[in-house]
TrEMBL record:
GO BP terms, alphabetized: tRNA methylation; tRNA wobble uridine modification
Protein name, per record: tRNA modification GTPase MnmE
HAMAP family, sorted: GTPase_MnmE (MF_00379)
Source organism superkingdom: Bacteria
Chain sites annotated for binding (6S)-5-formyl-5,6,7,8-tetrahydrofolate: R25, E83, K124, K457
A GO cellular component annotation in the UniProt record: cytosol
Similarity-based family: Belongs to the TRAFAC class TrmE-Era-EngA-EngB-Septin-like GTPase superfamily. TrmE GTPase family.
Presence of the UniProt keyword Acetylation in the record: no
Cofactor(s) needed for function: K(+)
GO molecular function annotation: GTP binding; GTPase activity; metal ion binding
Gene3D superfamilies: P-loop containing nucleotide triphosphate hydrolases, Probable tRNA modification gtpase trme, domain 1, tRNA modification GTPase MnmE domain 2
Length: 457
């Protein structure tokens, strides 16, 4: 993708299907006057909407619509951009697309995310802002959309750049001391001063890392799997949480044969709830496949909600099955990780008393559901919506963790003291932090990031 970023590109910028309005977008380094004249038959005033006929090669009118010309560098991509807004019929938009490709020498269809990638390459957006464009489009909750808008506006980038400037300032003094130890006009880096700056950096990094984890949760959500024996109320609980009859509920054990999933939101945090087949020794091939898929979902879950039937806890056979499932869960994970992911919930609290300390509810009446929602948010690490929260990605979290680790290592080397190793750790911290906004980013990572965008954006 990066090798061809100088070609003129064309794409339909609206979603597939019929609509009231459809947009065809063009971006090119070279002037677009010839294309504009071929399509519109007149010059366009920059950044003004012109209502006019859009013409085919033989002069016939394809449609009447709006044409807007954004000269470089005052455009989304930083290049010459033409946008054609016509009626949103798929055939008509394909005709306009073909006309642009025909009338603009060297033009080709844009790849996914290529318009935004050009905005990044031309300095209109940094990488964190470019990612926020896709996150704003894909946002599944109002909170996520508002947070993505803040990231697009530069909230994350501003904080990262402030940290980067502090790192550069510290690197300047450390490396100057290493390079010119005999020069009187170079300020000597006092050990306590360096330790103070490193301590301040660690505190600021920890604060932004906590907020970034929250932002990543807003974007990615929480994977919650409902597990347990057949007929303990997993499908009823899914329906209760979703507020809709999504899963079939019957008294017959093994009704759910495959995964049923639904996305809900709690305080703006998306939760992906998966109802699975009951965990038992299956009696037929179809159910065996369903149980195998249940274990696959459990392995990927952030939270495994192990559901128990309060009305059957006293039954020896039920107890044996519960112990067997617990043993299987432990075999799929180490004890510490399992403890963090496993949440025991006792259903049918309207018919029997729950054991002390257990989280009980009634999927039928809805009692206890609010407590379950709060517990799920707590397991996710959600602490309500901080002021000015920005959406983030796991990539950002990993980069900030790496930065913090290098700063901590730098502090350890100062105490030795070993300024050459301090300088190296600060350099690595600088690179890790700058990867968030794209100053130090490999081309293959850019291809992966922008390849996930929709075509035309």
């Amino acid at each position: 993708m990066l090798a061809r970023h100088q070609d003129p590109i064309v794409a339909i910028a609206t979603a597939p299907g019929r609509g009231a309005v459809g947009i065809v977008r063009v971006s090119a380094r070279a002037p677009l006057e010839a294309l504009i004249h071929a399509l519109c038959g007149q010059a366009l005033k920059p950044r003004h909407a012109h209502y006019l006929p859009l013409r085919a090669a033989d002069g016939t009118v394809l449609d009447h619509g709006l044409a807007l010309h954004f000269p470089a560098p005052h455009s989304y991509t930083g290049e010459q951009v033409l946008e054609l807004q016509a009626h949103g019929g798929p055939v008509l938009l394909q005709l306009l697309l073909a006309r642009c490709l025909e009338a603009l020498p060297g033009a080709r269809l844009a790849e996914p995310g290529e318009f935004t990638q050009r905005a990044f390459l031309n300095g209109k957006l940094d990488l964190a802002q470019a990612e926020a464009v896709a996150d704003l489009i894909d946002a599944s909750t109002e909170t996520a959309a508002r947070s993505a808008a803040r990231a697009l506006d530069g909230a994350l980038s501003t904080e990262v750049n402030a940290l980067r400037d502090a790192l550069i300032h510290l690197r300047m003094f450390v490396e100057a001391t290493l390079d010119f130890p005999e020069e009187e006009d170079v300020e000597f880096v006092e050990q306590e001063n360096v330790l103070g700056q490193l301590g301040g950096l660690q505190q600021r990094l920890a604060q932004i890392l906590a907020r970034t984890r929250q932002g990543a949760l807003l974007r990615d959500g929480l994977q919650v799997v409902l597990a347990g024996q057949p007929n303990v109320g997993k499908s009823s609980l899914l329906n209760a949480l979703a507020g809709a009859e999504l899963a079939i509920v019957t008294p017959i054990p093994g009704t759910t044969r495959d995964r049923v999933s639904e996305q809900i939101q709690i305080e703006g945090v998306p939760l992906h709830i998966v109802d699975t087949a009951g965990l038992r020794e299956a009696s037929d091939e179809v159910e065996r496949i369903g149980v195998a898929r249940s274990w696959e979902s459990i392995a990927r879950a952030d939270v495994v909600l192990f559901l128990h039937d309060l009305t059957r806890l006293h039954e020896p056979e039920y107890q044996r099955e519960d112990e067997r499932i617990r043993a299987q869960l432990a075999a799929h994970d180490d004890a510490a990780h399992l403890e963090a992911r496993l949440l025991h919930v006792y259903n049918k609290a309207d018919a029997a008393a729950a054991p002390a300390g257990g989280l009980s509810l009634s999927a039928k009446s809805g009692a206890g559901l609010d407590a379950l929602r709060r517990e799920l948010l707590q397991r996710a690490g959600w602490q309500s919506v901080p002021e000015g929260l920005f959406i983030a990605r796991e990539r950002h979290v990993r980069a900030l963790r790496a930065t913090l680790e290098h700063v901590q290592q730098a502090e350890a080397q100062v105490r030795l003291p070993a300024l050459d190793l301090v300088a190296e750790e600060l350099r690595l911290a600088h690179e890790a932090l700058s990867a968030i906004t794209g100053q130090f980013t490999a081309d293959d990572l850019l291809g992966e990031i922008f390849g996930r965008f929709c075509i035309g954006k």
